[in-house]
Amino acid sequence: MKQRTSMGFLIISFFVCFIVGIVLANQCGVDHFEEYGSLTKYYLISYGEKSYDPIALLLYVCKSRCLHFVLLALSTFLFRKTFVLDLYGAWCGFTYGYFFVLTIGAFGSVGSLVALASIFPQVICYLMLFFGMRSRVTSKLQMKRSERVLEIVMLLLLFILGLLLEVYVNPWILQKVIRWI
Q: What is the DSSP string of 119-148?
């Protein structure tokens, strides 16, 4: 029962923060996004027209994602509490809400398609990784050492797969969507 309540809290906090992100984005406006956002309209249009350096993108993505992964993994394996993971889930809700509104503001009615294209397909792996870490914390099962090692290897493989999708598949999808627009 406690696990269901905890999952409900995570879902509610994600959507509440998503709505807060939407409201804040509407208050700040597109100008703020154009100045500080990472996926500005200029960036996305030039990204759709030019080729990119996958090695440079891989290094950038690794630097960004590895820090999140290491901190979440440490919180999962050391503290065995869901607080940090729930806080991260709420932060993701906020940033996705903010990002979606500002992308729609910058690109008009097709902005939601651009926003979805910018997080797909790697978001699937990252969600599986997040919920895998979370289930590790909430699970009451006693696991053998070999099962724990297998679980860690699977989580690591999900992370690596997410990175590879983000670097090699996502830019192709994003370029196709931007060229279609």
A: HTTHHHHHHHHHHHHHHHHH------HHHH
